[in-house]
Amino acid sequence: MSDLKSADIELIQRIIPHRYPFLLVDRVVDIDGTAKGVGIKNVTMNEPQFTGHFPGNPVFPGVLMVEAMAQTAAVVVGVGKDLADKNFGVYFMALDGVKFRRKVGPGDTMRMEVETLRGGGKVWKFKGRATVEGEVACECEFTAMMDLPK
After folding, report:
1. Which of 14, 18, 27, 53 does the annotation list as catalytic?
2. pTM of the model
3. Could you tell me the CA-to-CA distances from 95 to 82, 103, 107, 113, 120 in Å, in that order?
């Protein structure tokens, strides 16, 4: 078990396989083992989804908010289990109670709080909440299969 409490972009890329334009977490802070952590996503106008979602009124897609929370959870588990450079896979199994509460757009900093509800084996369940300036933008529970190295 790792004693690290945060992950910068270099460590994130050593844990999860995502890359631009689909790497949706810039850093993870306040990591508490595999129990919980907080991801940060700085939303910028030069991201490719804004060319079509929506021209003249850029909105960060809700499904990408959920994906950003899932990437945060994967990094939390990866840091907690010391999985940098171990090439493990993470795959969605279910989404529950997904609610979108606030528009997110260029210039916003999205804070993704994730908490492990069940974990340890192959199937993990998390609770996630994304906020901007203290306002809830998205919340949900999600289940993922983690293909952890033995």
Report:
1. 53
2. 0.97
3. 26, 20, 27, 16, 19
Banded model confidence at residue 88, pLDDT cuts 50, 70, 90: confident
Count the helix, strand and coil residues of the chain and give each as a percent rounded to the nearest 5: 20, 40, 40
Nearest Cα neighbor of 13 from 3, 28, 35 is 28
Look up residue 131 and give its two tokens.
Answer: 């906020």
3-state secondary structure of 90: strand
**What average pLDDT does this structure show over 43-54?**
96
Examine the residue annotation and report whether 53 is marked as an active-site residue of this protein: yes
The per-residue pLDDT for 2 is: 81
| pLDDT at 57 (0 to 100) | 96
d(CA 75, CA 129): 16
Please give the angle made by the CA atoms of 39, 130 and 11, to the nearest 5 degrees. 15
User: Which helix (H) or strand (E) element contains residue 81?
Assistant: none
